[in-house]
Amino acid sequence: MESAMRMKEKTIAFLQPYAKELLLHQMVVIPFSIKSIHCFEQTAQQFEQLLLSESRRYIRSWELKLRDDDEADDGIIVRKDKKHDPKTFFHFRPGLTEELTRRNVNFARYHSFLEHASGDYYTCNEHMLALAAALDREAPGFYFHEKLLASEIPRRGVYRILWYPSIGKKLGAILAQEHTDKSCITYHLWDRTAGLRYGEDKVQYLAEPGTVLVFWGKKAPILTNGLAQPLLHDVVNCVQAENARMASIFFGHTAP
Ligand SMILES: [Fe+2]
Description:
Jelly Rolls
């Protein structure tokens, strides 16, 4: 059996051309394990099940903050205010299950959902660190791996499942206004329907099976003296879907 070190080395070598492309083009499509992508989809379905079967009050009991800062939204957040695009999302970081327990939220029927979310989080975290090591070989001196690793675990990344109430919205309606992410690196992992558009020309992103889209967020230019630029993107309603639009994302953050 191959040693863990050798496996890690192989992954970094595999990711190196993608790291190069990411540095040159703000974004890159990377082959990803179909099994993992299937897991992301299953976890998203479990989240939707929770949203559709529980009371608003119960859903609100999952709204938490694991850290003492304004940006830290954890658990389930329902956004309806005028400042943001209306959406509901789930944020998983390590420590979430413990916090739900501490607050006496009865999540017995969602154990499997939380375990899946945790598994997805660590899959992404590990991949991001390997990509960071590959980035270091392509652009030495920016210390991608060290800076991402230096973030304490709850700050390093967040696994998000988005649920947009697109039902009844017109084709072409904007679900998320044009923006760049607050992250350093964003992994667009899975979506139920197309809708993500990127760049000045608003190119529609259509995921090929077994791939994820990786792009830079706002922290990337700070880390790289402007070499890596964040990708502008928005989301439109582009299908007459019977279900809400859903997407899974992993945001990687560098230490401040
Ligand atoms: Fe975004």
